[in-house]
Design goal:
This protein has 190 residues and is of the alpha+beta class. The chain is built from eight helices and eight strands. It has helices at 3-10, 17-26, 82-87, 108-117, 120-145, 148-158, 168-175, 179-189; strands at residues 28-32, 37-39, 47-53, 55-61, 67-74, 78-79, 94-97, 101-107. It has a four-stranded antiparallel beta sheet with strand order 1-8-3-6. A four-stranded antiparallel beta sheet has the order 2-7-4-5. A hairpin with a 5-residue loop joins strand 4 and strand 5 (67-74). Helix 7 (168-175) packs across helix 8 (179-189).
Length: 190
């Protein structure tokens, strides 16, 4: 049950048996139905989520009701509105499930305690945050400098096999184009 998240931790830190038992005692588990919302814009993000199975999306809805997906979080990815979580302020983003999804999560309080009790976790979440910041910087640059077709190709590389699992409208929202234009790109590439 915990294999994937423990392997994720092992990418950056080495936990002994006692530390592993402690983090597992702090982890909470939840099944999230397709289309269910874990966090709504305006709420305070009280947890950081690890996707064990399924896929989440992080997005915002603008004044015109247009949805802008900033990230997909399939298996082995973390999901959080980092500003809301770290500052315990209202969220800008919404997090919802694109498929039936199984998550492990740590509450804000549990993570703060974990930092004190197992200091290695500060290193783990620092690296996670740095990697996330790098990902978002590259995404911004891509959106400013690449064509829609190049962004689509980049999506396919970043999220292999996800295209078969999620709706075309979500991919289009992530790339920043209409579903009709995405269909045209797909036809040209096939």
């Amino acid at each position: 049950m915990y294999d994937l998240i423990l392997a994720n931790f092992a990418m950056h830190i080495s936990l002994d048996v006692v530390e592993t038992a402690h983090v597992l005692s702090q982890l909470q588990h939840k099944m999230v139905k397709k289309n269910a919302t874990l966090l709504s814009s305006g709420e305070i993000c009280k947890a950081i989520y690890f996707v064990n199975k399924g896929c989440l999306r992080i997005f915002n809805i603008d004044k015109e009701g247009e949805e802008h997906i900033i990230s997909f979080c399939p298996e082995n990815w973390w999901a959080v509105d980092i500003s809301s979580f770290s500052g315990q302020i209202p969220a800008f983003y919404t997090i919802s499930a694109l498929e039936d999804t199984e998550v492990f999560y740590l509450s804000y309080t549990a993570l703060e305690q974990l930092y004190l009790q197992v200091p290695k976790f500060e290193r783990f979440f620092r690296i996670l945050t740095q990697n996330g910041f790098n990902l978002y910087q590259r995404r911004i640059t891509s959106n400013l400098s690449k064509t829609a077709e190049e962004r689509y190709t980049q999506f396919q590389k970043q999220y292999p096999k996800l295209e078969q699992r999620i709706a075309q409208k979500h991919i289009a929202s992530y790339i920043g184009i209409t579903p009709v234009f995405l269909s045209m790109i797909r036809k040209r590439n096939s």
